Amino acid sequence: MAIPVGVLGAGSFGTCLALHCARKHNVTIWARDPEIVEAINRDHRNPRYLTDARLPDNIRATSELEEALADRELVICSVPSHGVRDVMRQAAPYLPEQAILVSTVKGIESGTWMRMDEVFEDVLDPVHHPRLVFLSGPSFAREVAESRPTAVTLACHEEAYAISVQSSLSSAWFRCYSASDVVGVELGGALKNVVAIAVGIGDGLGTGQNARAGLMTRGLREITRLGVAMGADPITFQGRAGMGDLVLTCIGDLARNRSVGIELGHGRSLEAIIAGMSQVAEGVRTTGAAVELARRHGVEMPIAAAVHEVLEGKLAPAEAADRLMSRQLRPENE
After folding, report:
1. Cα within 13 Å of Cα(10), Cβ side
2. Are residues 150 and 193 in the same domain?
3. CATH number of the domain residue 58 falls in
4. What percent of the chain has pLDDT over 70?
5. Are 219 and 195 in contact (CB under 8 A)?
């Protein structure tokens, strides 16, 4: 059954989900930039992201949050993590009380060290909290836009709402699974970006595929260790929002965070790398947050700590690799 959908954010993922939803539903997409809004409404293409994807005629763009949210039953938030608090604070007065809100944002807020679910709950009235759903899993925007087979996880404390979204978003090639472990799904989606930077650094240094596999498996151990300390179910990290997203982000050629790591491994400065990017690499901000959360919960995360020092310019990429390889030997499960 068709429902009115609002998408906040016209970046790659917001655009691909607007396109996906428009195959069954009427969609309004919000963008800050009036030029993007005008181009979508005039040319049915996003002039900045996924530029070769034609957007269906039933996608209407606006730069007004009130218009984007009016009478929407399903709202999808796909803005960068550092913009969530500001956007949702402005959107809150217009968010319909019965709307289900789906976040696709993967990150941790700098300074507060809050997960995105905590940021949404901090900004929105409690009446909206049960209907907050969090989407994560291995899903490059370009492949979603091209209708390539994709499987993701929808997590909600009240799983019935995740099941409702599961019905609205799933298609023959876009498969959604429901879950209730919001903490695990959120941490898996955020922290895999940190490991992807580490893997990219190794790729840039030419350390080889053995090293890549070692970093991915030990990185997953770090993510799980912190997740369990914060109340997550360890099984979550074996699924799409954990291992699935980690594998894609660490080996995929479209992965922005891995690309940042590769360039760092080649010796480029972080400032030069970021200046040349048109999209946000969430892992750059998330790394510092991961290190701080690990400190607060008394969890050891040596890969995240090494990446953080490389990003801060305190450690050369090759020195980071040497430090990780020369750590004290220990059992597999530690």
Report:
1. 31
2. no
3. 3.40.50.720
4. 100
5. yes
* Catalytic residue list contains 314: no
In contact, 105 and 79? CB cutoff 8 Å: yes
pLDDT in tens, 133-144: 999 999 999 999
Domain span including residue 122: 4-180
Asked whether residue 223 is assigned to any structural domain, the reply reads: yes
Dump pLDDT digits (tens) for 45-72.
999 999 999 999 999 999 999 999 999 9
> 25 with 165, same domain?
yes
Q: What is the pLDDT of residues 99-150, one digit of tens each?
A: 999 999 999 999 999 999 999 999 999 999 999 999 999 999 999 999 999 9
Say what the pLDDT of residue 280 is: 74
pTM here is 0.95
Residue 333 lies in a domain: no
Cα radius of gyration (the chain): 19
Query: Which residues on adjacent β-strands are paired with residue 154?
Result: 135, 178
Query: What pLDDT, on the 0 to 100 scale, is given for residue 253?
Result: 86
Other C-beta atoms lying within 10 Å of the C-beta of residue 122: 13
The residues that bridge with 151 in the sheet, in sequence order, are 175
Residue 145 lies in a domain: yes
Q: Which residues have a Cβ under 8 Å from the Cβ of 114 and sit 6 or more positions away?
A: 108, 122
Count the domains in the chain: 2
> CB atoms < 10 A from the CB of 58, how many?
14
What is the SS3 assignment for 140-192? Answer: CHHHHHCCCCEEEEEECCCHHHHHHHHHHHCCCCEEEEEECCHHHHHHHHHHH
Residues paired with 177 in a beta bridge: 153
User: Is position 330 within any domain?
Assistant: no
Helix (H) or strand (E) holding 26: strand 26-30
Determine whether 103 is exposed, middle or buried from the number of CB atoms within 10 Å of its CB (0-12, 13-18, 19+). Answer: buried
